[in-house]
Each structure stands twice: as C-alpha cells, then as structure tokens.
Queue: 3 jobs
Job 1
Amino acid sequence: MNIHTIADHLNSLADNSETGMNFDCQPISGEVDVLQVTILGREELPIFVSVTDDQILCISYLWGGIEEVKPNSVAAMHESMLEMNIPMPLSSFSKIGDKYVIFGALSINSSFNDIEHELAVLNNNALEVIDDMSDYLL
C-alpha cells in the first residue's frame, strides 16, 4: 500500500464511493511523500495521508496557532478537546508545530473501503470540531 495506489483508487471512485463522497487526490513529493485528499464540496479541509511501514496516517488541519484562539479561552478549549477525544469516532487531536490537527491512523493492511471510511469520518469530525470549538476561536 502506498499513496499512489490510494490516490488511484479514490480518484477512480467518482460517484461510486461507499461514503457518497467524491475525492480528489494529489500526491505531494518531499522527504516524506504525502497525499492531499480533498473531498469535493469541502475543499477548505483537505486531509493529508502518509504511509509508513506500520500505518496509514490521515491528518486534517483545524485552525492555525494559538493566535486564532480567544486569549482567555485556551485552557477551556483544551479541556473541551480532551473531553471530546474519546467519544469522537476514529479520530484524535494533536498539534503539529503551532497548528491544531485532527488525525486518524489505520493498519497498513487496511482495505480501500476502510481508508475511504476513515477519510469520510475524519472529515466529518473536523467539521464538527470546528463548529463545536467556534466559541473559543476568534
């Protein structure tokens, strides 16, 4: 499994996906090859997929750094995120540098249907989190 086989599969689905979503995949070459997956109609929240020997990692950036959070709301926002972490299906929160992200990981042996499902759930969760955290954001 690699980003190119994932891209080929998702791009070929068109209107035939299990999730009802249409995917647009663009490989990004670099030190670590990454697949940028955009769900049509939700272009503002791309998902970045990388494949290692052990896992398929899917990451979506939620918002920028702490400067996008109301100054007196950081602790309360972090508390809310921690409380959401367990009941949120297939996803968890983290930070990459100063950026807040939501991510999910799959086995390297996951099926294409599993990957498609993870991407759909991750994107839905990202939209829900942004809505739920809006009171804390500027």
Job 2
Amino acid sequence: MVRSEIISKLSDKIHRKLKKSELEKILNIVVNTIIDGVKENKSVELRNFGRFSPKKIKQKLNARNPKTGEKIQTSEKRSIAFKMSKELRRKINKSEGKVN
C-alpha cells in the first residue's frame, strides 16, 4: 500500500470530513515525527502498533564489492528496527476460519 492509498482509506473512513490535502499533511507530520525521534536516538512507540528504534550497523573491515570482488571497508551506518506489538501480531496472525 502506498501513501496515496492510505490517504484515500483515511478519507473514506472519516466520511470525507477532512480534505485529502489535510490528511496528507497529518500523515507527513506523523512520519516526520517518527523520523526525528529515531534521528535523536530515541525509540518511538505507537501503542498497539509497534516500536521504531534506532539501530547501528557496525563497520565491516572485510566487505567485498560484489561487482569487482575488491575488498572494501564500510563505515558504521544507522538504520531503523521495527518491533511489532503483541496486539498487532495477534491481529495479523488471526485466522478467521480456524477450527479448534
């Protein structure tokens, strides 16, 4: 699902009380707030959804360029780790036709 589809679904769910441009601004604020929190090395938690945490990827001394096979040294990088909540995991794995 892409950003425009999310905005359309939000618009349908609230019965078009807000313009799509306003919903897009709200979505941008939420995403940018998550990014800013992770940039500051803080975890961002959305209850019943999950937690975005900063993650460091160590530098590698013996990495190889796959195209040339040449050994290269990579620098330390930052990434984002996402851990879903138990509630989200339960909703995703819920089987509607499951017979016990």
Job 3
Amino acid sequence: MPDSIPASLIIDTLKDTFREARAWLAAEVAEPPRHAHLGWILSVPDTHQRTVLAALDKEAVLRVLTCATEDEATTIAAGLWMGGEPCVLMIQHAGLYASVNTLRGVAIDGRVPAFYMIGLLSREKDKDPRESHHSMVRYCEPLLDTFGVPHARLEGPDDVHLIPEYFRLARERRGAAVVLVGLETICCSSPRTSSARSPPRAATRSAFRR
C-alpha cells in the first residue's frame, strides 16, 4: 500500500543528490562552477508536491525557480545543464501531457539530461495507477513508455533512493528520467533539514539571473 513521503525527507535526499552531482562535475570538468547553492528546483505550481515546495522556501542552499509552464521549465533545465548546474523539475502529470513535445525535442532528440519528479494528483491509494479511474493518472506511465522514458514510482519513504538513482540515469543516458510521486507529500520536520531562511525570492527573471 503506498504511503505519503515527508517533505523534509525528499529535500534531504535532493541535497545529497546535488552534492553527488557537483562532486561528479568537479571530477569531470577542469573549472566547474562554484556556488554557495547546491542545485536548482524548477517547478510549476504543484498541488501534489506543495509541502515540498513550501519547505523549499526555507532552504538557503537550494535555489527554486517557479516557471510559468512546463515547456519553460524544460528549456531552462537545458540551459542549466549546459552551464554545469544540476537541477530537478517538479511538475504534475497534467504538465507532462502539456509539455510532451518539448520533452521530446529537448530531452530525447536534443539528448539533454532532464530529471523529473511528477506528482500523480488524484491517484487512488488502493489502486495501481494504470487502473485508476482518472485518465490523467491512468495514462501517465503508458505515455512515458511510448516515448521510451525510464520511470519508477515513489510509493513511500523507503523509495527515496530512487531520486538519486534516476537523477544519475538521466545524466548517464543523456535524456529524460522520471520518478512518479504516488501520493501527496506531507509536511514533517527533520533534524537534517536546515532551519535557516533564505532571502525572499524575487521575480522569476531576476531569480534566474542571480
């Protein structure tokens, strides 16, 4: 039976994932970028993962950029990758359907690593997603299969190891990789999660330039 994942656990896992990504880049590139932040979260307003996005506002070492559309998020991710900056795209299944042509053009044909965390909003706890009454949930995995995008489900706290695994997979295969967040994330404090507040985020354009 799937279970909700605490936002703090996901954030801690993202930090570790970005640390590993920066260590890999430092070993591969003569002059890797050096910043105080660990990586970027590119999001489109997301009900399913809202507790994670709310908690990220308190994180000084993770940069969050709220995008207008999933197409915009995917193309910004390509630019960050070219600049040596690790990032994660956090969207809902509706955004996958809306941006599938950009995913195809950028991540698949363009061979740009793109790691997505996609929320399965309205997924029934007692049903396999492929048997859901909701078409948005039911067709998500078949769509990814059609485009040859590897994917896995985050069905509970024990599955967070899939985040770094599929992040690495996106980099290794030079393309898209997805983890599907089965149930809505929940708010829960963690001793590992920093309590230091980052400065208030500016508008999207100025936040990206900094």
